[in-house]
Amino acid sequence: MDTIKYTLTEDQMPEFWYNIQADLPAPMPPVLHPGTGQPITPKDLEPLFPTQLIEQEVSQQRWIEIPDQVQSIYRQWRPTPLYRARRLEKALDTPAKIYYKYEGVSPAGSHKPNTAIPQAYYNKIAGVKRLITETGAGQWGSSLSLAGAFFGLEVVVYMVKVSYHQKPYRRAFMESYGARVIASPSNETEAGRNILKQYPDSNGSLGIAISEAVEVAVQDEQTKYALGSVLNHVLLHQTVIGIEALAQLEMAGDYPDIIVGCTGGGSNFAGIAFPFMSAKLKGDRDIKFVAVEPAACPTLTKGKYTYDFGDTAHLTPLVKMHTLGSSFVPQGFHAGGLRYHGMAPLLSHVVDLGLISAKAYGQLDCFAAGLTFARAEGILPAPEANHAVKGAIDEALRCKEEGASKTILFNLCGHGHFDMQAYMDYQAGLLRDTEYSSDEIAMALAGLPVISQ
Amino acid sequence: MDTIKYTLTEDQMPEFWYNIQADLPAPMPPVLHPGTGQPITPKDLEPLFPTQLIEQEVSQQRWIEIPDQVQSIYRQWRPTPLYRARRLEKALDTPAKIYYKYEGVSPAGSHKPNTAIPQAYYNKIAGVKRLITETGAGQWGSSLSLAGAFFGLEVVVYMVKVSYHQKPYRRAFMESYGARVIASPSNETEAGRNILKQYPDSNGSLGIAISEAVEVAVQDEQTKYALGSVLNHVLLHQTVIGIEALAQLEMAGDYPDIIVGCTGGGSNFAGIAFPFMSAKLKGDRDIKFVAVEPAACPTLTKGKYTYDFGDTAHLTPLVKMHTLGSSFVPQGFHAGGLRYHGMAPLLSHVVDLGLISAKAYGQLDCFAAGLTFARAEGILPAPEANHAVKGAIDEALRCKEEGASKTILFNLCGHGHFDMQAYMDYQAGLLRDTEYSSDEIAMALAGLPVISQ
């Protein structure tokens, strides 16, 4: 009983992204200008993004066409495979059927190129010469570096300092595509210098790195900012994952009862979940959606759904999202891509609508799950993806207890080839779990801005 | 003009391996017993390999069926994509068409699982419990570890010491599949201890590691030896690469004028080349085959075609091959998979028949070629694969000089995600080229055994 692969032909690759906003029972809360407290306009975003990405950010259109050139590049590795994990099912001795969509086949090794390619494309046709971004684990930075190489754009990456030091090879990977990588907080920006003055040994965080990147991006017209998660247009681009998975499960003659993904900023989870969610919204299907996050950065499970800044230096607009407070700096655990104080506002909105449940796990359990998966399925997951693996395994074990043959789908968003230090540390017993007390969480949340809305 | 992918359906995956021995104008020279100087019999190989692999080793049958379970596992990542490298063609401004077959999509990141899976399968059905092997760069060790995990076999890997230290993450990767990894030369074997007595600081070599693995493998019946290259059955298993490439080029309406691959032990080169060679042997096609090796281990370009041992401690039979002498220990350059003193006897025989030309490059030129490729095509090659990339780029540039629109096919045998230290060293200007003088080569060759045949 080996693992089965479900492959779509290139002709079956999606030609449209799916915008869930068209189908939600209530609109998203507006994004607010921090000075005025009033909703921002598309014009306010122009220093950061090209027009077409801003249009996608605010669009209510259900299907948005994927440009030909983006499709042409997607085809280098898409459609990605969907697998029925029969060896894992056997190892767990579960009556559940476990499917996983594998995004690690992209040249950068994760789902991130799904949005890096269109972002670089829209910037290129808008005449932009240079993209500034931040990266946590380095998956996003690698993907934008790749996209920059394809479109002839200069790429500068502010890499969260703990990851910069934990993962020199990830940095080298970005540099091999021609990008410049800077450890954040850095001395190159006002935001970075302020943090370093207060906390000279700061590990950095995605919130700080975003501040640095935004500060540099607004300084000249040919430079723009690119974000690897959180924003509506990023979640939109990732829906190719779920659209393909739908078609592949149809090939398999199956449909998921449970969909699992890991959440940091929320984009890979949204990518696999949203295209299935419309059936739940219409009442056609009863699907349980499980967002899995690290216990060491429990945004959905312990954060507050309220207005907050997307970054530490408060250069971004205010968005309504689940947040631990923009001053919250999670400890340096080994899933850098999940170390974000906030959450994609669109995903938070969907959580608030009661469509998704969230769960938090410590990293030790996640690494154990990752090794179980690797030995059964042959693919060593990224530490971020291990959260989804752990979530899926737990659902499969619950099925075993209950004797229920449910169908579980999860997103294996990337491979762990650049995360071997983490696996070495885990196998050597050097990793610890971090959990925050309610006092610590309350203290972090105390710094939230006061917004009447 | 983006890169084009040619994908076969799973139904088009080969069901047979191709054995070029059936089509060669002259048989291979026999393998000799070092004690008697007489040809060995299949029985002599039984302490090392299960019967079905020995049968494949000596088979003259043209097509050998791939067992169902091996096909079933191959399908997890096969058929692998063939790409037309249009972005690279544009970057080089060449009239040549460049195609590459990409084997890095396997879970272990290289072509090596093509043989690791059937080797583990045949051992499993023969009742073997434990496989011993050696590895240079770690690609083979990773692949056998993966195959061991799939078939429930214990795997022990003797890893060449220089790679063991250069690539701790490759070691961790093997360990994540459950394998035990030992730096070679080690104190665990007679062969290892003898080397360490003479050269306490030995970097190791594939020849030494083979000695250690063979010594351990013959000690009990439930333990066998597995080799990742060199042997006929290994080359046989790799022919899935070329068989698929043939079908994919047919889809593209094209046929190669030039086929390029890198050579260490010879298996990935044979894998892509042999299925095309029968057309050349029949006189139907005029194809130029180029085997690219490192200048720092110039087996085909500076070695001698003669009988030699496959290992340093002289535990293997004598085989006729291109060799630098079994005592030759190449310096620790960054393409560990190509650091072998000898060559697959079958490939050497084909070279001796005049069917292949060989070329050697220094590692600096190869890394430069790899970065050019990564920025154009998005895939960062393994240092071994960079030799093939360099060879293909040189052929494409020659086409440009000559204004010839030839079709070039090369094998991109693996990705470089575990080789980032090498890229960092290269980018930091820390790497040097090694070339051996004719005196040094002559000295190494002086140690060859004297065989009348």
Automatic annotation (TrEMBL), chains A, B:
Its annotated pathway reads: Amino-acid biosynthesis; L-tryptophan biosynthesis; L-tryptophan from chorismate: step 5/5
Q: Which CDD domains does the annotation name?
A: Trp-synth_B (cd06446)
What Pfam families is this protein classified in?
A: PALP
The EC class name is lyase
List UniProt keywords, sorted A-Z.
Amino-acid biosynthesis, Aromatic amino acid biosynthesis, Lyase, Pyridoxal phosphate, Tryptophan biosynthesis
Source organism superkingdom: Bacteria
Which reaction is recorded as catalysed by this protein? (1S,2R)-1-C-(indol-3-yl)glycerol 3-phosphate + L-serine = D-glyceraldehyde 3-phosphate + L-tryptophan + H2O
Q: Does the keyword Lyase apply?
A: yes
Q: Name one GO molecular function term.
A: L-serine hydro-lyase (adding indole, L-tryptophan-forming) activity
Q: Which InterPro entries match?
A: Trp_synth_b-like, Trp_synth_b_CS, Trp_synth_beta, Trp_synth_beta/beta-like, TrpB-like_PALP, TrpB-like_PALP_sf
Cofactor list = pyridoxal 5'-phosphate
Locate the Tryptophan synthase beta chain-like PALP domain: which residues? 76-414
Could you say which EC number(s) this protein's record lists? 4.2.1.20
Q: GO cellular-component terms in the record?
A: cytoplasm
Residues with the N6-(pyridoxal phosphate)lysine modification:
112
Summary of the function given for this chain in its UniProt record = The beta subunit is responsible for the synthesis of L-tryptophan from indole and L-serine.
The record's comment on protein family reads: Belongs to the TrpB family.
Subunit relationships: Tetramer of two alpha and two beta chains.
- Protein's name in the database: Tryptophan synthase beta chain
Q: Which gene encodes it?
A: trpB
